[in-house]
Structures are given as C-alpha cells and as structure tokens.
Backbone:
C-alpha cells in the first residue's frame, strides 16, 4: 500500500482520523476523538468501528465543553426568537381587532347619519349617545367573554346607571333636550335605553357572577366615612344639589329639567372613579377592552362638547340666566381635561398595538 496522503482509506496501519493529532487525538496512532480506540483511525480494514474504549465516543471532554456549550445556547436563542415572534403576532392580532371594532362603529355612524338623520348639526348629540352605547357594549363583551371584572370600577357603572335613568325620565316625557333632526324622534331614545341596559348588565356581571374577580381593593374612590362600595355618593349627592339650584328651563317642568341637568352634570364626573382606579393599579397596565370602553365614553363626550359649544346659550334659566349653559360647558371641558393623559397613552397603545400603561407606573408587562 502506498503511504501517500490517501493511504488512510487502505487497510494499512497509517494514521487515520485518530492517527494524526486531529480532533483531539495524540501523535503516533493515538485514538481519535479524544482518546477512543482506533475506530476511524484504523480505516475500513482496521479495528472495529463500534468498539470505542472508555474515553472515546462516550467521553468527549473537549467537544462537550466547547461546541456543546454553544450548541446548548442555540435553543434558548430560538426560544427567545419565537417568543418575540409570538408577541408580535399577538400585537398584530390585537391591532386588527381594534381596527375592525372601531371601523364597524364608524360605518354604523355613517349609516345612521345618512339614512336616519336629517343631517342637522344636532346629530352630534345622537353621535355622542351612540359612542357611549358602543363603549358599554365593549365593556359587556370584555366582562362576559373573559368572565372577569378586573380593572372595572363599579362606582363608575353605578353613576352611569343614574345618568341614563335620569336622562330617560326627562326625554321620554318631554322634547326640550332632544336632537332637532330625525334621530330625535325615536332613535335617540332607543340608544339611551340600550345604553342603560348595557350599563346595568355590566354592573350585574361585576357584582354577581364575576364578583370574585372584582378588584374592590383598588376601586377605592370616596371610601371615607361611608359603607364599603358607596364612595360614589360623594359625587352623586353634590351634583344633585347643584342641578336642583342651577338648571335650564327648556321643558318648563321642574322635575324634568332637573333630571336632565343632573344627568348632564353627573356624566361629567362619572368616569372619575374609573380613572382613579387606573392609577391605583400596581402594574399600571390597563386591559385592552377596558381602555376601548373608556375611550368610547370620552369620544362621545367630545362630540357632545362640540355641540354645546355652539348651543350652550339655549340652556337658560326661567329668568334668562345662561349660567346652566356655562356650567354645562365647564363640566364637560373639565372631564376632557382629566382624560387628556388617558387619551394620549391610549393613542400610543393603539398605534403600537401594545398594552396601555399609565405614566406613573413602569413599563408594559404584556397584553392582558
């Protein structure tokens, strides 16, 4: 046999993979792969392939400590990659749901405007009512599909039940505060009734079937010298007194005028317990559908504020004072000011398809 460079494939005793000092072998016929019996080194005609001695294939100190360490890191990197990809997929899915949900609302709004309204400027009142109803519809979806009441303020729901109830007692009996267009004939009433039903349904869900998930320890607004859960009284009672003494006279009926004015004033502060609860949450992360719910209520308030900016002078007392109109504008403006911070972080969350995290807390902990 030739002793040339290709002689390792022969049956001679030339050094093979283990004969030369390669792959951790030693000089002069030492076993390959870190001390194994002559397997590959013996060639096809040499020693047996499947008879490694101790320290051969069974023990590979150099290989296991070198390459295996790097190889072991690869699955971890792959897991990180897949986790990041999974988060991106979740974010994109959430963004698609956001777009679909709001696109449906705006499409319905256009349909109502062109088909069920005379195009009058007062349609903004109906539009605001639709947005409120949409918001409480979102809250019902969140509560009953997730079977959780986490992150929802029961006090805000209690106050909105009062808002819709008192408004309905006024607009069903009289027409002084209804939109001027065709939507004021019957559609506005239906929207307000559905909003009351949705609000009461969400309140029932938080207090009865999913009460164990309600975060009463964080819904603490007004919990001073009152029974637990009755903190909303600090908003409901003073606003009622204000409505009794300062109210317009469009219906020429004391009870009806006070009821509508009370609903107007109370709605301006009804979200305060919910915003307070957001700030009390330790993580600062607001659930996605809860954020949409609050945003829809805020959007509805923006629509109504735009209407009353041009129509506040109509809210006058029987003596001709425009103080009720000024108070209505001021209360709505203050509500929007309180929500500016929320609107900004809500915009960032929707834009980036990430959870809404309030500024007083740390970074996002993931989509909830």
Residues:
């Amino acid at each position: 046999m030739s002793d040339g460079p290709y002689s390792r494939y022969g049956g001679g005793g030339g050094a093979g993979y283990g004969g030369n000092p390669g792959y951790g072998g030693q000089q002069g016929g030492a076993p390959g792969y870190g001390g194994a019996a002559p397997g590959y080194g013996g060639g096809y005609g040499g020693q047996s392939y499947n008879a490694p001695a101790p320290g051969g294939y069974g023990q590979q100190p150099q290989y296991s400590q070198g390459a295996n360490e790097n190889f072991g890191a690869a699955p971890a990197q792959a897991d990180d990659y897949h986790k990041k990809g999974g988060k991106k997929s979740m974010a994109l899915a959430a963004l698609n749901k956001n777009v679909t949900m709001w696109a449906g609302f705006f499409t319905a709004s256009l349909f109502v405007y062109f088909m069920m309204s005379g195009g009058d400027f007062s349609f903004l009142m109906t539009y605001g009512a639709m947005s409120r109803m949409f918001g409480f519809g979102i809250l019902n979806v969140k509560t009953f599909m997730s079977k959780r009441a986490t992150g929802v303020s029961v006090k805000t729901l209690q106050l909105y039940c009062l808002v819709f109830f008192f408004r309905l007692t006024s607009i069903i009996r009289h027409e002084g505060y209804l939109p001027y267009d065709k939507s004021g004939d019957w559609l506005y009433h239906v929207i307000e009734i559905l909003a009351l039903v949705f609000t009461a349904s969400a309140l029932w869900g938080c207090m009865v079937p999913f009460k164990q998930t309600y975060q009463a320890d964080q819904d603490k607004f007004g919990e001073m010298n009152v029974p637990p859960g009755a903190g909303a009284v600090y908003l409901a009672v003073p606003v009622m007194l204000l409505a009794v003494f300062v109210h317009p006279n469009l219906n020429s009926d004391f009870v009806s005028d006070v009821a509508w004015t009370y609903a107007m004033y109370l709605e301006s502060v009804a979200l305060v317990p919910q915003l307070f609860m957001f700030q009390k949450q330790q993580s600062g992360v607001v659930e996605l559908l809860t954020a949409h719910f609050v945003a829809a209520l805020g959007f509805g308030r923006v629509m109504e504020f735009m209407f009353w900016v041009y129509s506040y002078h109509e809210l006058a007392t029987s003596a001709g004072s425009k103080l009720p109109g000024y108070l209505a504008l001021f209360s709505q403006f203050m509500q929007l000011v309180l929500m500016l911070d929320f609107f900004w972080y809500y915009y960032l969350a929707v834009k980036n398809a990430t959870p809404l995290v309030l500024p007083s807390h740390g970074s996002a902990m993931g989509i909830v």
About this structure: Confidence is low (pLDDT under 50) at residues 1-74, 361-368. Residues 247 and 324 are 5 Å apart (CA to CA).
